[in-house]
Every structure is written in C-alpha cells, then in structure tokens.
Design goal:
Elements lengths: L2 E5 L14 H12 L4 E5 L1 H6 L4 H5 L6 H14 L7 E5 L6 H15 L2 E5 L7 H5 L5 E3 L3 H9 L10 E5 L2 E4 L24 E3 L9 H7 L5 E7 L2 E3 L9 H4 L2 E3 L2 H15 L3 E4 L8 H13 L5 E6 L8 H7 L2 E9 L3 H6 L9 H10 L3 E8 L6 H14 L5 E6 L17 E11 L7 H8 L4 E10 L5 H20 L9 H11 L2 H14 L3
The protein binds iron/sulfur cluster.
Length: 522
C-alpha cells in the first residue's frame, strides 16, 4: 500500500457531528483515479466510544504515555499498518495538537513509515523543526501535491511541500488548485456503522417519557460531509480567502447528482456542507436549492450563509430542499464596523432573514466578530441590541476575536485602514466563563490552546494594550447577551436530526432537546 490515511482522535470531539473526514475522502478519490493504492482509517469513533479508552480521554498526557503506546501498538498490529510505506495524517483547525503529536510519534516508532501531515490546520515549518518524527507536511490543497509526492516528483517542485534538506527545513509556496470542486469523496474505507447513531443507542440518557410517548424506536442519523463551492467571491479584509483569488462552484445539477450518489452508496441521511457559504449569489443558491429539492432525496442538511444574496422568500426553498440548520455569518450589526472590514451588507435586514429561516423550521446559528480595528463601544451596543431583539430566532452562536495571524489571516493594506502592525506574540486561549464545550474540554484535560498573532496600534486611536483590553470587554458584552439565553450548547446536529424525524416541528424539538441535555450530556 502506498499510503495509509489516519484520522486521529481529539479529546474535544463532539459526538453530535461524528462523520468521516471530507479531506481524506476527496484525496482517496483523487488517488484511486490515478491508480495509487490507498487505505483510510478513522480513529475517532473508537476513541469516543470504547469504554477501555475512557481514562486515556480524560487523563493528562504526561500520565497517559503507557496507555497511548498500548493503544497505538494494538492498532498497528490489528490493522497491519507496518505494510504502509507512507502514513498520511489529516489535522483540522480544532486539532488537539499535544495528543495528536504524541500519537503520530508512536505510529512512526511502531511502523517506521514515512509520516506526512496535511489538512486544514495551519502548519508552520516550526512544527517540523520541533518534531523529528514528521517527515513532510503539505500545506494548502493536497489534491495536486499529494499525487505528485507519491509518484516521486522532485520535492522542490511540489506546491506547498515542507521538507527537510541539508539539516534544515524548506518550505515550497502553495496555491489552491482550481478545477476539482465537483469531486465525489470516496468514503468506502470507513465503516458507516460508526456514523449511524440513534437516540435509542443513548437511551440511558433520554427521559423516560420521551422514549415512551414521542420517540419512534429505531430512529438513527448518519452524517456525511460534502462541499461543492471552493473559495469565496468576497473580500473581507481579515480573511485569508481574499488572498487566494479562487472561487469555483459546482453546477447545481451536478451537486444534486453527487448527493444522490452519496446518499444511495452510504445510506446517509444528513449532509454537513462545508462550503464557505451556500449563497455566493442569490441565483446560484436558488438553482442549487431547486435542483436538490426536485431530486426528492429525503435528506436533511446544514451549511453557512452570507447575509447578502438572500431574500425572505428563499428560506421556504431552503426548507423544502431539506435544510434544517444554517449558520449566518452576520459578524456585526454596525454598518461602520462592517465597512471597516470591507464586508458590505445591510444589517437592517438580518433580523428578517433569521425570522424567515426560523419560520421555516430551520435551526439558526449566528457568527459574530469582535476586535475590528477602530471598533467603538457603540458598534458593540448595536450587536447587543440585535441579540436582545432577535434571540428567539436563533439557537446557537459563535463569537470570534479578530486577530492578525501570520500568513493564514492577514489584514490587507494595514496602512490604508490606519493600523500599524507590531510584533508577533502569542496568547493562550482560556475559557474562564465556561461558555464553550471545546474550551471546557481543554480545561478539563489541563491543556490550553496557544495561538500566535501580530499586535497592532490604531493610528490616532488605541495602542495595542488598550485595544486588547477593549476587545476583551467587547467580547464579554456579547457573550453575556448571548449567555442570557443559554444558546451555546445547541450544537448537537445528530440529536436535532433524530428529534426532527420524530417530532417534526422545531418548537417541539427545542423543548425535548433542552430536556435531554439537562438530564445528561449525550
Ligand atoms: S469571511 Fe467569509 S465571506 Fe468573507 S472573504 Fe472570508 S470566506 Fe468569504
């Protein structure tokens, strides 16, 4: 076998969205077309569910060394991984890096295979300098680079490859490859039984009256990830996509064809679309929704939407095509703040969109951004007022802090917007208020998430120290406005799907979702 992909587990994994890895599925499809022999293994389901691994999931890494060695050795033996020449690890943005590094070190030790990393995690060459068991990293789109690597192309000619040479680490520039957006991921190596989970499987945690009165026995949901839009046509100045100059969509009929194929082949009933946004234009959104609806696939799905390119009427079509969950990238309710980040949209329409979506039985999530350069308390007040007035129309939220990350995210033309970039520093993200499941888990296992970003001063405004303090105050104001309505944990897509199948209406699902979550976390 030329390459064995391995999806590593995280101590942060959310069982509510357990599904195969999209990146591995796409690479498997691309490599098999090129006759490269490939196999894939997802370690997440076992790590989440095997009671023998309970201790490993919760103990500090320093005390888990023997247990992890036993765990990896067992996988190497039972899966015959010593036959693989190359082990490919896919790391995503939420990767539990300390655990994943230790697991990769052990896989290298017990197999002797070449270790290559890829995925949506931001990789700096530093990670290779600090970890000698990592042989290669591919940054960016691997659908072009990985086949070149496996077929023996000269290393310096492989886009995005980070490799060792002459005692140092070299890094090739990368680019996103256009032309492969419509690829159907190949999930055939994954055991779909691992992703088909229903409420009866968790009945110890479900209130008796729900089991007896309203829950149809045997209801299960199987989730698959898929995407059909690459890049983004917008130019928000804090986002790395504006630098990629890549925007490509799949023809709506082809989207429907691919969904039909995936549904039939893998018996999937819910899809999580991992597009930057479903609606790069109103026309594309309408055509794609109609194509999915007309196919009568009997599926449900989730995705993100930009608050431009929408009207109130389109939410009916969203719902009729199977959409049950939408994340709205609202970012701010202040026209001034939106202008500062070069994200022109009309906040006076946001509330109407959320309501129209809610009225069509769709579960809404909203994303807010804090820390925009020159942001003023008045900008935050507008967003807080919006949350108060519209909280009945959304169920979950994310609050992101705008930071200028090296390479990954870079404010375009900082001088033009009046900021002076300072030094590269780092900070540990903690969750003192306990409002996020991810950070609660990190805290519980005694690790913090470290991020690096640039400081900056506002010309004629706040210096970095003052700005940083203001950002945290603003973030707290938004958090407490949202926390008042206890929406943060409404993120269990699988539970929403299962309940919707049984209860049909959003109001009933919300009632029972809360009851189940209060009884016990499932
Ligand atoms: S923030 Fe979203 S809408 Fe803006 S450029 Fe990035 S991906 Fe596109």
């Amino acid at each position: 076998m030329q390459i064995q992909f391995i999806k590593l587990p995280n101590r942060l994994d959310n069982p509510g969205v357990l599904m195969p890895d999209l990146g591995i599925g796409i690479l498997t499809a691309v490599l098999r077309k090129k006759k490269v022999s490939v196999a894939s293994l997802d370690l997440k389901p076992q790590f989440l569910n095997d009671p023998r691994l309970q201790e490993l999931r919760t103990m500090p890494l320093s005390r888990a060394e023997d247990g992890l060695a036993w765990y990896v050795m067992d996988i190497v033996k039972t899966r015959s991984l010593t036959r693989a020449k190359v082990l490919g690890f896919s790391l995503d943005e939420e990767t539990d890096l300390p655990l994943n590094l230790e697991l990769m070190r052990l896989f290298k030790k017990f197999t002797g295979a070449t270790v290559i990393l890829g995925g949506s995690y931001y990789f700096s060459p530093m990670i290779m300098k600090e970890n000698d068991f990592i042989d290669f990293i591919i940054r960016g789109d691997a659908t072009l680079s990985l086949p070149l690597f496996l077929l023996g192309k000269e290393q310096k000619k492989i886009p995005g490859l980070i490799y060792r040479k002459g005692g140092g680490v070299l890094s090739n520039p990368y680019f996103r490859q256009a032309g492969n957006t419509g690829i159907i991921p190949d999930y055939s190596d994954f055991d779909m039984k691992n992703y088909r989970i229903g409420l009866p499987g968790c009945k110890a945690h479900v209130p008796k009256e729900l089991l007896k009165d309203v829950l149809i026995p045997g209801i299960e949901t199987s989730i698959l990830p898929y995407h059909f839009i690459k890049g983004c046509p917008n130019n928000c100045n804090y986002c790395f996509w504006h630098r990629e100059k890549l925007f490509e969509t799949t023809h709506p009929e082809k989207v429907a064809d691919n969904l039909q194929f995936l549904k039939e082949k893998y018996k999937a009933d819910h899809f999580i679309f991992l597009n930057n946004e479903f609606n790069p234009s109103l026309q594309y959104a309408e055509k794609t929704l109609s194509a999915i609806k007309d196919r009568r696939l009997g599926i449900t799905w989730s995705d993100s939407v930009h608050p431009n390119n929408l009207d109130e009427d389109i939410f009916r079509l969203f719902s009729e095509s199977g959409c049950i969950q939408l994340y709205f990238g609202l970012e701010s309710l202040s026209p001034r703040a939106l202008k500062l980040i070069n994200r022109p949209s009309d906040p006076s329409r946001f509330g109407a969109f959320l309501k129209a979506s809610h009225d069509n039985n769709i579960f809404n999530g909203v994303n807010f951004l804090v820390g925009v350069p020159f942001e003023a308390p008045e900008d935050i007040r507008l967003t807080v007022d919006f949350i108060k007035n519209n909280n009945k129309y959304f169920e979950f939220y994310n609050i992101n802090l705008l930071r200028i990350f090296p390479e990954l995210v870079s404010i375009r033309d900082p001088e033009k917007i009046g900021i002076k970039i300072g030094t590269l520093g780092s900070a540990e993200l903690r969750n003192p208020k306990g409002n996020s499941r991810v950070y609660d888990t990190l805290n519980a296992v005694g690790i913090t998430k470290k991020i690096s970003f640039y400081s900056y001063d506002e010309a004629g405004g706040l210096n970095w120290k003052e700005k940083n303090r203001q950002d945290l105050t603003h973030a707290r104001r938004l958090l407490s406005a949202c926390d008042e309505h206890k929406k943060r944990f409404f993120d269990d897509t699988r539970l929403i799907c299962c309940l919707l199948k049984s209860l049909k209406t959003k109001d009933l699902v919300i009632k029972w979702y809360k009851k189940i979550k209060q009884t016990k976390k499932i």
